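FORM 7B - TANDEM STRUCTURE REPORT

SECTION 1: FIRST PROTEIN
SEQUENCE AND TOKENS:
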Amino acid sequence: MLQKDLGEIFRLQTQRMNGVLVSVTKVRISPDLSLAKGYLSVFPSEKSIEIITNINKNKKAVRYELGIRIGKQVRKVPELVFYNDDSIDYIENIDRLLKQDAEKTSRL
């Protein structure tokens, strides 16, 4: 539920920023529901550090928006912390390395 709602909040906020896409890849929540760690994938990845830093600076506003959406469903809206999920970049790097290796093997 949190992943879907956070994704919608970021989708609406990034509509104003042409060429930037922020997706929520996963959300981990503490057992007492007081802290939610959101992992965000940013496209283009060159802007990811800047955008994640900006989101963490404005996490109170994001928490407020989330509270409006889920306030009736939970007793307390969790504190939010956001991290960069660079797994897509990692996968692309592995794919690129495998293609390079395949090209070298085919030349032999």
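SECTION 2: SECOND PROTEIN
SEQUENCE AND TOKENS:
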Amino acid sequence: MISCSNRTCHSILFFKFIILLILFTHGCSPSSVKNIKDDNVHNSTGALIKNVWMPDFENKTFLKDEKIEQKFREHILTRIHENTADILISSTFNTDAFKPSAVFPLLESGDINNFSLAAAGKERGLDAIVLGSLTHITGIKKKQGLGWFRGPHYYLETQVVVKIYDTESSSKLLEKIFTHKIEIDNQMFAKVKANESVILPLVDNSLIQISDPLGEDISNTVSIQPWKSFITAVNGDRVTIASGKKAAIKSGYIFEVYDTGKILRGTDGHRFVLPGRKTGEIKVTSVFPDTSEAIIISGKVEGTGGSVKLKQKS
């Protein structure tokens, strides 16, 4: 055994403590949820980044609070980031198809005009569009238990609806209701029924619980879809596509070009697009933040609106 004086031993122990403290605080600290922001690319795989538009969820309830709504969004973004590295979430959508008030195109039935929504998304090189709404916050009273122990139980129920649209086909990839219930006492139940804002902390907790499966479902749904972008301009043998550096595109990439396909009419005015046929190939020559320029190297490009997909190496 190595012996040392009390002073020497104390110095060694103190030095070890300082080293461990430095390693812990600088080398092992986790990322903060607050650092996850919109339009933040997280990609370490070298894969192309899928561009997804997810505006702020519509709040249809009596309870309005921007801080809680923003916190809910940040938790969703964090969950998506944890689950995948090839999705870029955008909250802005600068196009003439939508006004700043974020009014979506509607059919006569009142449903979202999926075809117009997807067409506008193609102009921005979007792979998918995520629309969500906080549909209700309500109190529920149930009788539970057996015999003498049967009595009223009170719950706060929070519900969120999410829809994901594919821009290439105009189809709905996902429509799902997320519900969270938390048991409360009769006094809090009365406050819920009276639409009092004192229930905000409970709603905040429910939305955090919902954000985990919701974010996971968004990332899983989008991740299994193949990456694509769209042609926005054709000038001779020069082609412009609606994706660029933000999608991790690089000069020299070769894309297969597909035409817009056949339009199918569904019920209540809905329209869908069947996958088109391959018409040619293009090679990227210049890359900008949101767009890329390419030249036709085989076949032909039949106007704008067609999709492009990365050519797989044989």
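SECTION 3: OBSERVATIONS ON SECOND PROTEIN
Residues 166 and 293 are 24 Å apart (CA to CA).
Confidence is low (pLDDT under 50) at residues 1-45, 95-102.

SECTION 4: SIGNATURE
Preparer initials: ____
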